[in-house]
Write a structure and sequence with these properties.
Layout lengths: L1 H36 L2 E10 L5 E12 L3 E3 L1 H11 L2 H22 L7 E6 L1 H5 L3 H12 L6 E6 H4 L4 H13 L2 E7 L16 E4 L1 H6 L7 H16 L3 E4 L5 H9 L4 E2 L10 H10 L3
Parallel strand pairs: 2-4, 4-5, 5-6, 6-7, 7-8, 8-9
Antiparallel strand pairs: 1-2, 1-9, 2-3
Helix pairs in contact: 1-2, 3-5, 5-7
The structure holds ligand C2E and magnesium ion (3 copies).
């Protein structure tokens, strides 16, 4: 009996694994038509100055409104799109759409500094030979100034990057586009290496922000963040923190010298109208 029960458990585990594989396969094959049919949409999450709570920009986060499965987050399909190469046309669409959106905000709120739009780039996009040409083209057609665009690249995508990989990023940086190192602190990169990278922003990973949640915050976490911030500032890099969920975290991170923040405490990712009204209200 015990044996057959064990057998059933294995069968169940196998069935679950099969179901996941089938869904993955189904999602993968559905991606190209989904892009053609316009099933993807973008949510925007505000980036806020920690000093005064004013809106500094927004990060574009893609979602898939799947006809059967409902709204899927990027973690469900970006790896699949990355694997098949569909990330290139999908990423192009995200860039085009969010730059158009940012230009719309910019035209209506030109009184403040440039409102920035942050767009995530996956490793495949980074390796794509047309990255620079296409980005220049999108900016020119939209009229958005290059300095209003920030491209986010994960720290792990740049680990061990050689000059060939860094060249397009350098070209973009020379044009005035900001490059941010996303999920910083999770990739074990060599800190001395930072000098070599054409980045101007460090996005401190959410795991650090979580460490600030305890009362009192873990003193070692505080020291680490303090160290990263002072290193970043000494290299002329701005520091953005992800995943700020409470006012206490925001206050702690502000005291530690972080520049900008993003998280549920301020706003969840949402429709573009939300950013528009935040800009009208002047602060979150
Ligand atoms: P990311 O670039 O690190 O984006 C931040 C993620 O943290 C987002 O998850 C956001 O919704 C979530 N987040 C923001 N504030 C909070 C908070 O206070 N608490 C918690 N728990 N989470 C928070 P999301 O939207 O699911 O995106 C996941 C990842 O998918 C992104 O991580 C990014 O790496 C990738 N991604 C999203 N859009 C794109 C895209 O257009 N292209 C590419 N290549 N990757 C994308
Ligand atoms: Mg990001
Ligand atoms: Mg991030
Ligand atoms: Mg992250």
């Amino acid at each position: 009996r015990a044996k057959s029960a064990g057998g059933n458990r294995f069968e169940l585990a196998d069935a679950e694994a099969d179901a996941r594989a089938i869904t993955r396969h189904g999602l993968t094959t559905a991606l190209p038509a989904a892009l053609e049919r316009g099933e993807f949409f973008i949510e925007y999450q505000p980036l806020v100055h920690l000093g005064d709570g004013t809106v500094h920009g927004a990060e574009a986060l893609v979602r898939w409104c799947h006809p059967q499965h409902g709204v899927l987050g990027p973690d469900r399909f970006i790896p699949l799109a990355e694997h098949t190469g569909l990330i290139v046309p999908l990423g192009r669409w995200v860039l085009e759409e969010s730059v158009r959106q940012a230009n719309f905000w910019q035209e209506r709120h030109s009184d403040g500094g440039p409102l920035r739009i942050n767009v995530n780039l996956s490793p495949t996009q980074l390796h794509h030979p047309q990255l620079v040409a296409e980005t220049v083209d999108v900016l020119e057609r939209s009229g958005l100034e290059p300095r209003a665009l920030c491209l986010e690249v994960t720290e792990s995508a740049l680990i061990g990057a050689d000059d060939d990989l860094l060249k397009p990023l350098r070209q973009l940086a020379e044009m005035g586009v900001d490059i941010a190192l996303d999920d910083f602190g999770t990739g074990y990169s060599n800190l001395a290496n930072l000098r070599r990278l054409p980045v101007s922003v460090l996005k401190l990973d959410r795991s650090f922000t979580q460490g600030m949640q305890q009362h009192p915050a873990d003193p070692v976490d505080l020291k680490i963040v303090e160290g990263i911030v002072s290193l970043a500032h000494s290299l002329d890099l701005a520091v953005t923190v992800e995943g700020v969920e409470t006012g206490a975290q925001a206050e702690q991170l502000r005291k530690l010298g972080c520049d900008t923040a993003q998280g549920w405490y301020y706003a969840r990712p949402g429709a573009p109208d939300r950013i528009h009204s935040l800009l009208l209200a002047d602060a979150v």
